[in-house]
Amino acid sequence: MTIQRMDNVGIVVDDLDATVAFFTELGMELEGRSLIEGSWAEQVVGLGGLRSEVAMMRVPDGPGRLELVTYHSPKAVTPEPAFTPPNTLGLHRVMFAVDDLEDTLARLRPHGAELIGEVSRFEDSYLMCYLRGPSGIILALAEQLS
To answer: For residue 55, which of 110, 142, 113, 135 has the smallest C-alpha distance?
Structure first.
């Protein structure tokens, strides 16, 4: 048996509309949005009384997708500290290759994006940065230079 593909990465968010707007500005497309509830969902996730809303975002013409989820019931749990540093165990970050890193940052800042460190050059190959987006999501952006 082999893996067929990586389907998506799921991210729990507190404001689904703002997060969809953020990733739309990044260049992703909304594939669909729906309410998720019922016994089948409770069994899969392991949470009783589950009621959530999901927005599936996809990379245009690519295989990458993000499943953005907001929980109405039970409420989402905030980790301590609320905004964990990049070296926290668990999901680290999601990285995107972009055409123009500075332009991408300028478009994302009005949607709440904040640099974690600074834009840095890796040899003559890449400009890179880490940023924090909605709900504390850490993204890495990389612009290939050559």
So the answer is: 135
117 DSSP assignment: S
CA distance 66 to 23: 9
Q: Which two tokens stand for residue 122?
A: 């890796």
Chunk the chain into consecutive blocks of 10 residues (it has 146) and report each block's average pLDDT, rounded to whole numbers.
82 96 97 94 91 96 91 91 82 89 96 94 93 92 92
The sign of the torsion formed by the CA atoms of 34, 38, 43, 45 equals: positive
The 10 Å CB-count burial string (b at 16+, else e) for 116-143 is eeeeeeeeeebbbbbbbbbbebbbbbbb
DSSP 26: H
Count Cα neighbours of 65 within 13 Å in the Cβ-side half-sphere: 15
